[in-house]
Amino acid sequence: MGTCWPKPVDSRPTTNSCSSPVHNDAKLIKNRNRHDSNSNSNNHENSRLSAADPNRGGEGGRGGSDHQGVPLSESKTERNSDGARGKDNNGQKINVASTFTFEELAMATQNFRESNLIGKGGFGSVYKGCLDSDVVVAVKQLNLEGLQGNQEFIVEVFMLSLLHHPNLVNLIGYCAHEEQRFLVYEYMPLGSLDRLLFEPDQKPLGWSTRLKIALDVAHGLEYLHCKTNPPVIYRDMKSSNILLDNDFNARLSDFGVSKLGPIGENTHVSTRVVGTYGYCAPEYVVSGKLTLNSDIYSFGVVLLELITGRKVIDHTRKSGEKNLVMWFLPFLKDHKKFVQMADPLLEMRFSIRSLHHAIAITAMCLQEQPSFRPAISDIVTALESVASQMGISDHHQGRIRVGHKNLEA
Fold it and tell me: Quick check: bond before 374 cis, omega within 30?
């Protein structure tokens, strides 16, 4: 074990180590990271995914005929502390998730000590850990009640082994040990966006920081929708799935329910409805027809949370204010009331013009008709315009610097 922890502990797991390859499911994932050497290489700007969607089992088919898969580029990798790394045929560095033994993860988390627990929910528990190389990680122990938990594990490893972008969380590795499933991610010190927005012990986020986070998230979603082939529908956009590092760089996490999107003449993917109440697009909830526009609606809800500082569903509020979107819509009739929607914790330390623009972008994302919602590339352009007006410099692939400190809370 590395030196991340103050002192070594006696770690004696009672179960045997997982083999490598650890499980038939893991072998399936690992095999999907290979193809014959005559295939076209994938790169950061246009990731090519296999159309053999691993999360399609047990669900409805696509809206239209199936399409032919695009093979993945071949890479030779070797294991290290940050996950396996290698180069594609263009000589560009890529990351491939490593396999860990149960003993390694037990050692890293001090036998999953309660004091290292940093998150818990329906998905399972997340522990802060330290690998032998002194790399600090987050270890997610999945709740596998029912087949879907294992299915989500497969999809998560499959997707994050192929998708690489500064605004997507980095999957370092995984472990499938007997009936247990673990995912190992890079550690994000500030945790999730919902924690920073809604927990009373947190310092309020300034307006510029909120815009920066929104633009980071938009860049991540743009990569999924526009830079992958076929496109990827995230399907679980919400503030608790947006993680932040110490510089407030935001990354999307939890890809267990993501889907490969429609291509060609297909307009949608037919699937069972999953997601979090309040964030899901209304037409998806009603019909089960999933499109890229479903993600746009969910992004609009997150943007609304950033603007208002309110939860998407809050049963502690009075009637008429429990559902954030329903509370928001009447304000659109009078732009003079827009300022009343701003988070009181901002204490009016923001540009009124930038607030109006942010609300206008949010309103477009939340259009009831999916076809009326803007494409994510247009949203990125609009947010970049707002950011530039605020003196926020947009750097490569969503890395931006927060300026105008007088606007910060």
Answer: no
CA distance 182 to 141: 5
Query: Residue 289 forms beta bridges with which residues?
Result: 270
Q: What is the total count of domains within the chain? A: 2
Same domain, 166 and 306: no
Residues 172 and 59 in one domain: yes
Domain-embedded: residue 179 = yes
In the prediction, which pLDDT does 394 show?
Answer: 56
Domain, as residue range, for 84 = 24-186
Q: What is the arithmetic mean of pLDDT over 348-363?
A: 96
Instruction: Assess whether pLDDT exceeds 90 at residue 44.
Output: no
What is the rounded (10 degree) CA torsion for 195, 196, 202, 207?
-160
CA distance 73 to 230: 15
**DSSP string covering 242-287:** EEE-TT--EEE---TT-EE---TT--EEE----S-TTTS-HHHHHH
Q: Do 200 and 322 belong to one domain? A: yes
Q: CA geometry: angle at 167 spanning 52 and 230, to 5°?
A: 25
Nearest CA-CA partner of 23 in 195, 150, 113, 132: 150
Do 283 and 207 sit in the same domain of this protein?
yes
* Beta bridge partner(s), residue 393: 401
pLDDT average, residue stretch 168-192: 94
- Do 226 and 172 fall within a single domain? no
Q: Tell me, yes or no, whether 161 and 204 share the same domain.
A: no
> Is residue 232 domain-shared with residue 314, that is, in the same domain?
yes
Q: With beta carbons less than 8 A apart as the criterion, state whether 155 and 256 touch.
A: yes
Of the listed 216, 236, 343, 394, which one is catalytic?
A: 236
Clarify whether residues 208 and 178 are in a common domain.
no
Q: Has 227 been labeled as part of a binding site? A: no
Contact 97, 172 (CB under 8 A): yes
User: Is 254 an active-site residue?
Assistant: no
pLDDT, one tens digit per residue, over 300-354 is 999 999 999 999 999 999 999 999 999 999 999 999 999 999 999 999 999 999 9
Within-domain flag for 12? no
Domain assignment of residue 4, yes or no = no
pLDDT tens for each residue of 233-281: 999 999 999 999 999 999 999 998 899 988 777 777 888 888 889 999 9
Per DSSP, the chain holds a count of helices (H) and strands (E) of 10, 21
